[in-house]
Amino acid sequence: MRRYVIIGNGIAAVNCIEGIRSVDAKGRITVVSEETHPAYCRPLISYLLDGRTDQKRMQYRDPDFYDRMGCEMLYRRKAVRIDREDKKVELLDGTLLPYDALCVAAGSHPFVPKFEGLDEVGKKFSFTTLDDALALEQAVDKDSKVLIVGAGMIGLKCAECLAERVAEVTVCDLADHVLPTFLNFECAAYVQRRLEDHGIRFALGDSAARFEKDASSGAYRAVLKSGAVLAFDVLVLAIGARANASLVKDIGGAGERGIAVDEHMRTSLPDIYAAGDCTESTDVSCGERKLLSNLPNAAMQGYAAGVNMAGGSAVFDRAIMMNSISFFGLHSMTAGSYNGELFEEKTDTSVKRLYTEGDLLKGFVLIGCSDRAGIYTSMIRNRTPLSSVDFEMMKKAATTAAFSAGAREKMFGGMV
Amino acid sequence: MKRVYVNEEWCLGCHLCEYNCAFANSGMQDMALALKGKPIYPRIHIEEGEKISYAVSCRHCEDPICVRSCIAGAISKEGGVVKIDRAKCVSCFTCILVCPYGALAPGEDGVMQKCELCLQNSCGEPACVKGCPNRAIVYEERGEEE
Ligand SMILES: Cc1cc2nc3c(=O)[nH]c(=O)nc-3n(C[C@H](O)[C@H](O)[C@H](O)COP(=O)(O)OP(=O)(O)OC[C@H]3O[C@@H](n4cnc5c(N)ncnc54)[C@H](O)[C@@H]3O)c2cc1C
Fold this sequence. Notes:
A: FAD/NAD(P)-binding domain; 3 domains; five-stranded parallel β-sheet; 23% helix; B: alpha+beta; Alpha-Beta Plaits; 19% helix; 21% strand
């Protein structure tokens, strides 16, 4: 019987289990998880705090999933070393788990730079796990003044979910606009305005330099780079994430910022696969090797890894950066890379930006106009030649009617 | 596994399928009461080009990208049908971001909805097919093992 070990129990891990079982019904699957919960929808931790979901509904799979899949679950256990010669994973408590095929699906961890005075702050949190969210929920009340460092996706989702439950939410970031990895200044203004309409304050182009505690009142304040001072009582650090790549890189596995994987999700080391936020792979929209951390990629990579670990054959070579996120009902979508020529259409409430290079659609930004956006996304992922579609029609609205009759016949005339 | 297919040449672009879909999923008995004078939120829509029109609904793909991409674990495939658990959906629109066919859209309540072949509603078979005046929409087997 083949032995599979999976490190991590997040999105990539669950899809890896499904991939293994699609090929091998019997093999022994052991899952090592540092967290205490069955896999939950990590992006939903903010929805938990604003009441749009609950712990039951945010489960990623049904309650009998692991039983049905025949998995041995090791919760609250941490993998600390991979022995590639003897093909064993060593856990913190000394347990050794032998494997025939291993998948590292260890995700990422929040990056916390050194700040002067940070140790003195009592109520400080990251916002990436269910336990983080539950602890933050305990720490805030209607009088809380919350300071969030980081105006990226995680910082802003945190701000959104706290806005109604606390007295004040302020977000600061060194970048001069929100969502700096996805949006430029102009596009970001639409999102920022929506958040401001709901009472969230911003200190942008300026970030926390140090934290101080007032000896007499016990109140905290952040001194920003500009010298401005912000009083707060709860601090959320959402500065960025780092791939959990060390398990593989420590034993000679290739990779710059993440674990390098090929289109079969193989690392550079035999019988060791990796999937999800811990990996770096080729971005098909620009050909560069990158961290491509998002949930859809983690799921598709995990599934492909599982199939291949079990001796099947699956290729995942269509990764791109893509994201759909909403703040107080305003939906922003981004995909691919922002290279080449820009087509832009703007109104007071929406922006559409399509980037083309040569005969290809490379990327887009859609704020407040996301209908059927997947048609654009699939053109980027499939490298559909623009010359094969009516792109003038496509600029107005994403529609499969812009494809050739032959392409439509393939899409709609049979099984896909 | 039977699926909904459309013959472009026969589609009149009359949009009746959209109304029949919205009605079948409304849970109401009277079509006029269900739809008259209100915006409708069908799970099928007519695409129109210069000389063509055709109806698009979920393809129930073999390896559905919406299922793997859903950040809420709300979309699944059972017995060949791609289904959405609307209680789990948080309206993030990631499924809209990835569906190559443009087959998903939010319902009146803002929560995502999609074609589930009318298997769960009172119609019991695709209402778009049943009501298509020119038989442009069909419900048939076109070869695939399930
Ligand atoms: C607040 C928030 C909002 C988000 N919103 C979106 C969104 O809208 N759209 C989107 O696409 N993505 C979003 N993401 C990102 C998305 O959650 C990740 O891309 C996805 O979870 C990656 O899945 P993964 O399986 O690679 O890693 P994870 O889900 O992070 O799982 C990795 C698991 O491995 C465990 N682990 C790590 N090291 C070890 C070890 N040594 N031993 C044992 N266990 C270990 C970790 O504890 C963790 O449970 C969001 C993330 C957050 C935090």
